[in-house]
């Protein structure tokens, strides 16, 4: 499957990478040594051995079930032998075919063909043997090692989380009951109930239907209320919810056309309400971090900020302040629910933990850019450190006598962009060191540059003994708004974000966003030229390459609509950056795994999360091992660094993951 991804990374939408899908595709299998007529694609176990589940009335249902493997091997012995043999044959034929395809693909390393001493060029099959095959073996070893989890700590955090959730729920329901009496009994986890309460009567943006203004819902009768006409309290009771009577603004809509009541949508709503009561604690940073409109199920109303006046949502500032606090409490409920369901509960589950208390997640190279993904559980999806209110990472611990080393690349993707585009401004900024985003803001805005030159502000400050504050304000404090925009641009432009998308994020006109983007590009024309070249490459050849020569194909480019073409162009800009970062991380891990001194000291890789690696080993050699890890990551290409910019690595030793951050 790894070979198939190297050959064609676009099959995620063109059939997939399962053994059944690959061996059943004649275009994939025609490179095999056997004639295609003799090839037999893999057939699923369900298709051969599956039986329809019998209903209670004796009739067959639609659900197909499989007996345990040990039963199938005994009861269907001949069929099982045939299935296993044909499975092995089709797998071998798939390998032969994919090998022939990869041998025909030239390998480009850092933009140059890889040639041997005899002058012959290496192929992507050579890349597979040198990098992806050993990387796959390394990942299997990491899965086997697993990470030790402190379940007692997670159980304690579960109690804390549920208690805090109840407080937040009561805060919202108490406010809502001022407008709708039965709201105190509602289920705040129900999108249907929330949407009716907040947006009842609103018109659907897709089909013009009107949302009900009132409706009766059945909820658990936790307070044992005896309803009229009943002798005793029933398990469930009816409540009547209706719209609160206030026209609340909606900026994010579901794919079906109704206002979204997701956590992101509620955070935007809280920010809009805060504008009426002049609250300052809902900063631009928190809003930027909160909102992720990348989901395909969400549609953002770009015109809202310019066509609607949100200054008078509620009649008084007091009402607005109470509403803001209530919606903020509801946001807190969403956040807590996410942490409980995605992390706290799954990490305690016995189905994903061995007897020793280790979590063994499945690591896969199954993204189009080559980034690792994880499942059962998804350890790649840890909450951001500043949002990790229950310190989930603290539950990942070292065994007694051991420590963890957590090493992380600093601004890896921006450094990759600087290298690929050969941008002098970015290369100089990284060489100078310090706060990269502050330097970007200084280069973008003349008034900031003037303030720095006149020493009215400092780019950064390193306190000396006895000093507790800088002599003049830091740039990031004095020009926070400009630095925020510079920071967002640094990351957004690497992903091909347009002025329209930035206008939505900043709540400004497209023209104003475009002016800011032009300021960024003014000193970085090399980036603009490089991005245009990647768009042309995708248009002409239908693919782009990463640093180590992996390709991402765009088969839909030729006949794409404007919207799809724009999406492909953004991917053509993003893939070389994100994919090359994945290449660097892979090389670093291979460098670490083959380091004989680290092995001798007893250190082993446990996990990779984006630009971060985690190792475990004896505490007594932690500092020595840390220095070796930093050296391996700083020079990941067989002991060298082929980039035009240094690779910054931050590493710490600790007894748990959280303490090492």
UniProtKB/TrEMBL annotation:
<protein>
    <submittedName>
        <fullName>DNA polymerase I Aic/mitochondrial-like</fullName>
    </submittedName>
</protein>
<dbReference type="InterPro" id="IPR002298">
    <property type="entry name" value="DNA_polymerase_A"/>
</dbReference>
<dbReference type="InterPro" id="IPR036397">
    <property type="entry name" value="RNaseH_sf"/>
</dbReference>
<dbReference type="GO" id="GO:0006302">
    <property type="term" value="P:double-strand break repair"/>
</dbReference>
<dbReference type="InterPro" id="IPR001098">
    <property type="entry name" value="DNA-dir_DNA_pol_A_palm_dom"/>
</dbReference>
<dbReference type="GO" id="GO:0006261">
    <property type="term" value="P:DNA-templated DNA replication"/>
</dbReference>
<keyword id="KW-0235">DNA replication</keyword>
<dbReference type="Pfam" id="PF00476">
    <property type="entry name" value="DNA_pol_A"/>
</dbReference>
<feature type="domain" description="DNA-directed DNA polymerase family A palm">
    <location>
        <begin position="391"/>
        <end position="621"/>
    </location>
</feature>
<dbReference type="InterPro" id="IPR043502">
    <property type="entry name" value="DNA/RNA_pol_sf"/>
</dbReference>
<dbReference type="GO" id="GO:0003887">
    <property type="term" value="F:DNA-directed DNA polymerase activity"/>
</dbReference>
<dbReference type="GO" id="GO:0003677">
    <property type="term" value="F:DNA binding"/>
</dbReference>
């Amino acid at each position: 499957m790894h070979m198939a991804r190297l050959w064609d990374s676009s099959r995620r939408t063109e059939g997939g990478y399962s053994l059944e899908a690959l061996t059943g595709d004649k275009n994939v299998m025609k490179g095999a040594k056997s004639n295609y007529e003799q090839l037999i694609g893999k057939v699923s176990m369900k298709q051969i051995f599956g039986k329809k589940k019998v209903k209670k009335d004796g009739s067959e249902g639609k659900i197909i079930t499989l007996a345990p493997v040990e039963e199938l091997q005994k009861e269907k012995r001949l069929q099982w032998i045939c299935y296993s043999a044909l499975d092995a044959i089709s797998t071998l034929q798939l390998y032969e075919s994919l090998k022939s395809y990869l041998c025909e693909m030239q390998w480009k390393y850092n933009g140059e063909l890889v040639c041997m001493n005899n002058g012959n060029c290496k192929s992507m099959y050579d890349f597979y043997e040198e990098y992806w095959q050993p990387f796959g073996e390394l990942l299997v070893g990491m899965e086997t090692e697993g990470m030790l989890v402190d379940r007692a700590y997670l159980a304690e955090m579960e109690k804390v989380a549920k208690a805090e959730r109840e407080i937040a729920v009561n805060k919202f329901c108490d406010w809502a009951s001022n407008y709708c009496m039965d709201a105190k009994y509602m289920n705040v986890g129900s999108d249907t109930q929330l949407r009716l309460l907040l947006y009842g009567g609103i018109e659907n943006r897709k089909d013009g239907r009107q949302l009900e203004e009132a409706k009766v819902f059945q909820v658990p009768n936790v307070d044992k209320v005896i309803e009229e006409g009943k002798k005793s309290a029933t398990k469930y009771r009816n409540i009547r919810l209706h719209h609160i009577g206030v026209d609340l603004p909606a900026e994010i809509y579901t794919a079906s056309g109704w206002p979204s009541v997701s956590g992101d949508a509620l955070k935007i709503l809280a920010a809009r309400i805060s504008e009426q009561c002049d609250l300052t604690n809902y900063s631009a940073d928190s809003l930027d971090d909160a909102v992720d409109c990348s989901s395909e199920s969400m549609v953002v109303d770009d015109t809202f900020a310019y066509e609607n006046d949100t200054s008078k949502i509620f009649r008084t500032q007091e009402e607005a302040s109470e509403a803001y606090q209530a919606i903020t409490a509801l946001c807190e409920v969403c956040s807590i629910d996410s942490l409980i369901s995605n992390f706290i509960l799954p990490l305690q589950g016995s189905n994903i933990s061995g007897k020793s208390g280790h979590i063994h997640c499945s690591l896969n190279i199954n993204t189009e850019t080559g980034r690792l993904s994880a499942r059962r559980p998804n350890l790649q999806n840890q909450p951001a450190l500043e949002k990790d209110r229950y310190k989930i990472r603290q539950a990942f611990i070292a065994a007694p006598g051991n420590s963890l080393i957590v090493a992380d690349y600093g601004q890896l993707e921006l450094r990759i962009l600087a290298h690929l585009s050969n941008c002098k401004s970015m290369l100089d900024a990284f060489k100078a060191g310090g706060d990269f985003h502050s330097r970007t803001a200084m280069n973008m805005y003349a008034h900031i540059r003037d303030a720095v030159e006149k020493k009215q502000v400092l780019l950064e400050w390193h306190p000396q003994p006895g000093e507790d504050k800088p002599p003049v304000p830091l740039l990031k404090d004095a020009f926070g708004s400009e630095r925020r925009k510079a920071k967002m641009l640094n990351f957004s432009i690497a992903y091909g974000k347009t002025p329209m998308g930035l206008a939505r994020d900043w709540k400004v006109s497209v023209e104003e966003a475009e002016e800011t983007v032009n300021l960024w590009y003014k000193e970085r024309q090399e980036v603009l030229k490089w991005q245009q070249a990647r768009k042309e490459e995708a248009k002409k050849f239908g693919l782009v390459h990463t640093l180590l020569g992996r390709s991402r194909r765009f088969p839909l480019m030729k006949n794409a609509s404007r919207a799809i073409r724009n999406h492909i162009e953004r991917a053509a800009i993003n893939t070389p950056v994100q994919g090359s970062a994945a290449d660097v991380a892979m090389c670093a891990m291979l460098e670490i795994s083959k380091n004989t001194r680290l092995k001798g000291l007893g250190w082993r890789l446990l996990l990779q999360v984006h630009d971060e690696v985690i190792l475990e080993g004896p505490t007594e050699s932690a500092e020595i091992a840390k220095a070796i890890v930093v050296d391996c990551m700083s020079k990941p290409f067989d002991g060298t660094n082929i980039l035009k910019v240094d690779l910054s690595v931050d590493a710490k030793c600790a007894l748990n993951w959280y303490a090492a951050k």
